[in-house]
Amino acid sequence: MAKAEKKEFNFGEFYSKYGIFLIFILMFIIFAVVNHNFLSGMNIRNILRQVVVITLLACGEQFMIICGMIDLGASRVLACAGTLSAYCMLTTHNLFLAIIVALFVGLCFGAFAGFFITKFDIPPFIATLATMMVAEGFIMTFTGGQNYSNLGDAYTFIGQGYIGIIPFPVILMIIILLITYYILSWTPIGRGMYAVGGNQNAAKASGINVGMVKFFAAIYSGLMSACAGIVLMARMNSGQPAAALTYEMDAIAAVVMGGTSMAGGTGTVVNTIIGSLIIGIIRNFMNLQNITASLQKLVLGLLVLLAVIIDTVVRNSRTKG
Amino acid sequence: MAEKKVAIELKNISKSFPGVKALDNVSFTVNEGECHVLVGENGAGKSTLIKCINGMYTADEGEVYVFGEKITTHNPRYMKEKGVATIHQELNPVPDLTIAENIFLGRLPQNKFKMINKKYMFSEAQRLIDELGFKYDAKALMRSLTVSDTQIIEIIKAISVNAKIIIMDEPTSSITEAEVAVLHEQVMRLKKMGIAIIYISHKLDELKVVGDRLTVLRDGHSISSHDINDLTQDEIIAKMVGRKMDNVYPEKTNKVGEPLFEVKDLSGEKFHNVNFTLHKGEILGMAGLVGAGRTETCRGIFGLDPITGGTMLLNGKEVKVSKVKDAIDNGIIYLSEDRKLEGLVLIRSICENIGLPNLKKYKGVFLNKIAERKDAEEMKTKLRIKTPTVDTPAMSLSGGNQQKVVIAKWLCKNCDILIFDEPTRGIDVGAKYEIYKIMIDLAEQGAGVIMISSELPEIIGVCDRTLVMAEGRVTGEVMREDFSQEAIMSFALGGSAANG
Known about the structure:
The structure holds two protein chains of two kinds.
Chain A: H1 11-34, H2 41-66, H3 74-92, H4 95-119, H5 124-143, E1 148-149, H6 153-160, E2 162-163, E3 166-167, H7 168-186, H8 188-198, H9 200-205, H10 210-236, E4 238-239, H11 247-257, H12 269-288, H13 293-320
Antiparallel strand pairs in A: 1-4, 2-3
Helix pairs in contact in A: 1-12, 1-13, 2-7, 2-10, 2-11, 2-12, 3-4, 3-5, 3-10, 4-5, 4-10, 6-10, 7-8, 8-10, 11-12
Chain B: E1 6-17, E2 20-31, E3 35-39, H1 46-54, E4 61-66, E5 69-70, H2 76-81, E6 84-87, H3 99-103, H4 118-131, H5 147-160, E7 165-169, H6 177-192, E8 196-200, H7 204-210, E9 213-218, E10 221-227, H8 233-241, E11 259-268, E12 274-279, E13 283-288, H9 294-302, E14 307-314, E15 317-319, H10 324-329, E16 332-335, H11 339-343, H12 350-355, H13 359-362, H14 369-382, H15 399-411, E17 417-421, H16 429-444, E18 448-452, H17 456-462, E19 465-470, E20 473-479, H18 485-493, H19 495-499
Parallel strand pairs in B: 3-8, 3-9, 6-7, 7-8, 13-18, 13-19, 16-17, 17-18
Antiparallel strand pairs in B: 1-2, 1-4, 4-5, 9-10, 11-12, 11-14, 14-15, 19-20
Helix pairs in contact in B: 5-6
């Protein structure tokens, strides 16, 4: 902070670039000091495993939010795809098929929402809300609310396995994060998403196929829900149609905490990872401190609010100069 | 001249933003009943100065006096109470409320039950409108009004709060010539009422019509204040740009060649049976009043709006355009009249904006960001875009530089036909010259250029030939040697008569 005396130093600029990292590191240090179990290798792996599902959802959510949209149906598509995958695993004992089924279901729901958003110009809020209800209704009718347990070692490896000391789901998460980063930063469609979210009319007048970009984002979000579904069901060793309720809200919170604007057009994957890690370590810390689940929600809600308030205030002070 | 009271006085105002000194020791005074014109290039500090007056900003140094009273509290609300009203360049009416509600927005009259007193509101609004001699219905929706009507409602609103000082920020930048006349009349009327007016404009020919005194700002300094009649237009321009401008328009070096692009009986929702031929190396003007269907026609050609009939021939071969990509693939491009709405993604960097229509060129396993940056840097030098780096967000640029970025987007491609829709709207004289130069250079290299413009002087100054449209039809065609404002205007006004 020695630079603070220099005239050119702009706190707002600095914060908007690195603020979220600082907050993360600060929290990490505080938690480590307060609770000695926090830093143990086991606990760190635990945190990573716990954030996998939220991070996967957040990857899809981020595409939607960058495009100026939102996906309210992610957690129900997750449950639907995951449970059908588990059902498939139990009936066919074919791991490959079980994964394909999940991805296909995710893709279908993504396409479903994307179709209505692009063809009929229905607000994404409504289209994905409808998707959420359809997905939930479908899986509840299909299963009658029943769980499918004991999925076999091959399947549970996806959620519980280790390669060396690293949990397999974490490796999966890293691969998907890399793919997400690649699409956002290094492909025309990634550029298209930023342009569509930043100024849809300008994107259209520049020859960007706006409908295709939005459709792609919706499908990607569906696929991410499916991936998260497989990981979660594998970790629980059971396909549960009622699992992961409201997880999309955690994912949206992670994206927003990471500094992505809900107005669209901005945001990076790195920030989103930090966003989900922050939510992950707060959750984990509260577990270690034996804070009840209900109280955890309350605290998380306030923290999300606080993070966004800090961000908004800093942003405003920056534009005013 | 009778002794006039000083309405507002600024003494040595300075204001800095991180990295820039926006205003440096600016002083000027406006008397009651005087229209004081503020001119200067984009980025000269006019907007900042206005914001220092209306309370949006607090000046770092210097003092503001309103009717002799020193202002110590700086916030917009307080300044409004002191009688300072601002009519912004971009108006933000609430379209689905009535005129009366818009006039009283933020201070709706209430009855003793704290409910809106509609009866009083409508009668009071109507009284104001009638008193000022307008024919609006206070109960009509704002949506039904044109841009200039909206401005007049803003003026009524300012009068209704007893404004003594009215700031008008480029009020004529987006209205037609006929509407400009109406607006000027209102300015005259306000002056007679003893209201002080600070008037900002890029249109030099209107300054002498409305203005009494003039202050030139350049790079945050007030260069000088004069009585408006002491200076010629050329002198004003010289003061604004800080050097002598020999000419407002660059020398025409392009040569008109063989036919390039032919439009036959093109029709759409707002244009009918449009026919014209564009030649290689030609700058074809499209004149007419706002709403004549020029923009719509060109949007149709570019695939932004649907076409219902007609054909287009490029080099003798028919081209089908159903979406923007088809037009771009055929080398036809269109630069929107509204650069903020359709030209730029303001929150993204200059580099990304320039790359946006050219993504195909950079496509690969990984997007070729090095090539993209190289192109952007090249354009930055070529078009002299004033920015520290190409990573700066497009929104931080001034109007003229933003327009250059919009042009740069398309120059990276090899286009045969470029349609510029009001390319110089809201940008300053120096930048205008550069944009005309770019158009002429493009034509010289063999491209066909179409320029839609509502400003006749620039059509006359730059074009080789001009079409005139009215009510969705081409009503006339004027060659360069026959150019005159009268000839073009008569076609623009004579819409259906000339056609019938």
